[in-house]
Every structure is written in C-alpha cells, then in structure tokens.
C-alpha cells in the first residue's frame, strides 16, 4: 500500500502543478495521458458536496487604522447610496519651530496624491495617467466637498479598558439618527462629528468637486516672476487654501507655545481635519485615497526677514521657507449608507440563504459551513464531516463506537482517496441590477478567510501567483477571478480550498467556517474588529472589505436555489481501482 500511496502522491503533484499553470480554466479530469489509464491501478473522479452558506449582516466595524480611505458618494445600482467622509489628525514635520521675524504666509497648499497608473506618453513625451482603478461611480458627477477643523479629540488609548489598550473607533452608518451627519462609535458612546466641527473658519469648500487624472505642473519663479523650473507630478488632490489668516493664527502665532513641542501636545490642541462629502443630486463619485503617503500633506509657504548689523549698517533680507503638516496619526472613515434598493438579511444559519449579499463599507458578508449537518454513508448516519473523512481515510475499525484510521510514522492519516483539487463554485445572481453596465462587476474579487482564527486559508499562502503592483491579478489560483459565460451562461467564481481540505484529512485540522467578502485588494490580509462581537462567530472582517463601496449578489445554498447555479463544493480525487 505504501508504494501505491507514493505513486498517488507523484500523480497528485503533477495534477496540482498543471492546475497552477491553467488556473483560469475549468479543471479537466485526469485521464490516461497523465496516469496511464491502461497500465495503472488508479482512477480519477469528482464529487459535488452540499454545503451551507448564509448571510451575515455587518455593523459597528473598526474604521481607524485602515490602509486607505474612501471619500465621496457612490451609488450601487443593486444596493443604494454610500457617502464616505474622513476625519484625520495632522502632525507637524518638526517641533519647536523658529519662524523668524516678520513672518508672512504666502500660501497654504493641501496635497493628497491619487492612486494613479501611467497609461502612456503624450506628444511631449510626458506621462499620461488614469485614476480609474481607485475611482468608483461616475467620474464626471460632482460632489460637494467641505473641509472643517475637527474639534473632537481622537484618543490613542481607551480610558475604559485595561491600561495601555488602544482606542478603536467603529462605524455607525445606518442613518438611524439622521442621514446627513457622520457618526462613529468609541465603544461607550456615539460621536457626531458634525457637532464637533469648527464652523467659524471653514478651511475649504468646493461646491462641485470632480477629480482630475491630469498630471500637475509645478512652477518655480524668481523674484521677478520669471519661471525658473517646472516639475511634473502625478495626479493629486492639490488645492490652494485661501484663508491664510486661519493658519497664521493656529500655527505661526503658536511659535512660542507648548502646543508645537510634541505630537501629543499638538494633536490635543489642533485636533485634525474633517473632510465631509455630500451628494449633489442622485449621482456621484468616490475616491480611494492614501493619506499615509509621504507626499500627502499641508504645506505652509511663508517668508521671514533677517536683520544683520545695527544702525546705518543694518541690512534686512527676506527669505522663504515652508512648514509641513502630514496626515499621520489617527484617521477615521465614516459612512452613511442608504440601502434603499435592498434589505440586507440577518442570515439563515440552519437552512442557508437563497441569495448571498457581499457589500463593502458597513454592509454584509457570507459564511460557508463546508460540512454542516449529517449524512448517510454506507447505511450509517454520521456528521457530514465524519462521512467526508470516512470516504477518504483508510479505516482500521471502531473503538468504543468511534472509527479509527491508519496513520503514517509522522502521525498523519493515510488516505485511500487523494484530493487533487477542491473548489468552491460560486455563481453570481444574473438578475442583479448593474445599472446597464455589463462590465460593472468585471473586476470584483472575492476574499475567503477562516472566521474562527481571522486568518487567510492555507491555500492563500501556497498560491504561486503574487502581484503586489496589480492586486486584481494576484492570488488567482486560490481566489479565482470572476469568469463570465460558463457552461450555464452564468458568471461565477472558483475559490480553491484544496489544502484546507487536505489539512482536515491528513492532520485532523479543525473544520472552521469560511467567510466570504468583497475585497479591493486581495494582497491585504489585515483585519478590522467588530464592536461587542466576542460571543459572535464573526469577530473580525478583512479591512480591505471595508474600503470598497461596491457590492455583489450571489446564489446561495437554500433548497429553492436551482441546482445548476447553487453554490457547491467540487472535489476532484484520485483513488486505487
């Protein structure tokens, strides 16, 4: 039998490598060209296993510590509207500054680079860009954008928790209080940031804002106003702030004050900015921004005078300098969700749901129980998981009514069936409204994770395809890309969980439920907490699922779902004849 298993392992290795090389195609059953049907003792087969999948409505998600942030208004044709705003601390680049004498602010400029990609060169040989990869909705539909000084102190530590525990902030996007203000939860109370905005001096107001993908030309001029140099930078939100008196009062005039001596002192004094997005009409657009970029800042351009000598020999010269504030520190993404096109269900964990709703921001996810309930196997009723193990392992018999199985010298179970490939087959709901855009879901990615341990499945770490520059084309063996027009004319996804199942069979790993979310970046595996979820089966969600405003609807596993589109687990295996 050992020789048989060794040969099987070689065959499986061949199959796995072949599947990696053709990961975007349907699995092809291994035939005699690989295993030599006429002169081997092996055969290949597949089985389709019933599973249970249901919805999990999400709320109170951690909204600080996100890698990127959303700003704007997005209308999902199947769900409704989401408005995203940002509250961020700012931090001085240097402390205890000396601004010199007779300081005069020339200008104040805020810069936040867009996520952009070079698409080619223009007639002058300069880069042309697109920002479409990080822009959601109608790029030409303006939104109202206002920037206020934030008056609410964002704490680093939670005073109600054990000493040294970080303060987390959570979403409250349900519009329960009202649908115009931006709210967050701190674990003990609800914060309305519109009650904590400084309205005496509005930092910036743009009545109709639309982002531009054009490069920005920066010119340097001499004392006579002549251009001395030109620098081109990638597309960015770059705006000159008109109210220089505000920055003179809040920054320059604080030169000798303790508030400019440390980050903590400054952030208690100047509590950050509130970027408030609002819809204009029924349309809009939303951007993903990286405020953590080293190029994201507020720069104060100023001049000062220096006098040397005394009396008639005194000489005064004027010099130019800058003072920079970065967006480091706490950053929160608040959301207002108006899901007027669908009611997100709580989920049926007993019978499964007919439709599964994956929605970003504060939305919804799906939970998959791979081995729910009981099954009849060889005239015996047992748990579905035990039946699966019994079909694949080599039994030794029963001890005290429980099956025992043969192990190798390392303690791993020996198998009579070796899994070549295992895939979750997930079909998109063809009736989902796409707003007339047939490519609306073209670049959607589904991310699967272990909800018990809040980690990716083992197949994630074994995926041979990693692309840090282009997340859409990364981890595509395990987390298969959306494919259109399969044999049923349907769009579907394939999530490979081969090693997840092998771990259960070989090493008796715990069968944990699998969470499915929509993700903007499958390369990101960081998590976000859920408030007061310690006794819930889901305590964390992938942070990348929070910073996508998009949603999708999938067919589930309830009995009323047609078999040809029902979510299923397909297992391809090799066994002796």
TrEMBL record:
Pfam families, alphabetized: DUF4270
Protein's UniProt keywords contain Signal: yes
Stretch forming the signal peptide: 1-22
Record keywords: Signal
InterPro entries: DUF4270
Protein name (Swiss-Prot/TrEMBL): DUF4270 domain-containing protein
Organism: Aestuariibaculum suncheonense
